[in-house]
Amino acid sequence: MSVVVADDQRLLRAGFRVILDAEADMTVVGEAGDGRAAVDVVARRRPDVVLMDIRVPELDGLAAAERILEDPENRTAVVMLTTFDASEYVFRALRIGVSGFLLKDTPSDRLLDAVRVAAAGDALIAPSITRRLIGEFTRAARPAGDGVPEQLTALTGRELEVLRLVARGLSNAEIATELILGEATVKTHVARMLGKLGLRDRVQAVVLAYETGLVTRET
């Protein structure tokens, strides 16, 4: 899988390149030191994944990610690299459709996992960022009601269960254990749920679950 690295710190870009190029199934096909350059490199190289620093100059990482993801001919997934003090931007980025968030000091194996997951069309968020996201950004979500939110009425009962567990941050394997189902069956339910709701990935499903009140911080 091909990867572009966008970060204004040359040493960090070099470090990411060493980690990624050491893998047999990955190759870095481009680098960028600012957001505008990142958009240009992605347009030319069409990588599977771009690792994007959320605070690059010229055009910030979120604006660059939005331009990349709004291109209908572009299939590049965006994984944002961030720090705790940038977490106020996470919710906006989830709406844009990024495929993951990682802290810059994340272990290399976690970084590689995120690239593989994003390239496969799924999404991954560092657990610590997920906890902070839920704590800070679900306060404005509508309170849970007694019935199924209108936006989710197309889902079956099982798909609603799966959505609730996805919103809690469970993996397919963990959901399978929770619901006593096969992992392949869970994967099918997730795919159908995303398709019915017109969502890009499970990250956007988490946002919708909180926005609609299906899940709250207390559930």
UniProtKB/TrEMBL annotation:
Q: Which SUPFAM superfamilies match?
A: C-terminal effector domain of the bipartite response regulators, CheY-like
Q: Which residues carry this modification: 4-aspartylphosphate?
A: 53
Locate the HTH luxR-type domain: which residues? 148-213
Q: Does the keyword Cytoplasm apply?
A: no
Which keywords label this protein?
DNA-binding, Phosphoprotein, Transcription, Transcription regulation
Q: Where is the signal peptide?
A: none
Q: Which Pfam families match?
A: GerE (PF00196), Response_reg (PF00072)
Where the record annotates domain Response regulatory, the positions are 2-119
**InterPro entries named in the record:** CheY-like_superfamily (IPR011006), NreC/VraR/RcsB-like_REC (IPR058245), Sig_transdc_resp-reg_C-effctor (IPR016032), Sig_transdc_resp-reg_receiver (IPR001789), Tscrpt_reg_LuxR_C (IPR000792), WalR-like (IPR039420)
Transcription found in the keyword field: yes
Which PANTHER family does this UniProt record tie to the protein? TRANSCRIPTIONAL REGULATORY PROTEIN NARL-RELATED, TWO-COMPONENT RESPONSE REGULATOR
State the name under which the record lists this protein.
Answer: Response regulator transcription factor
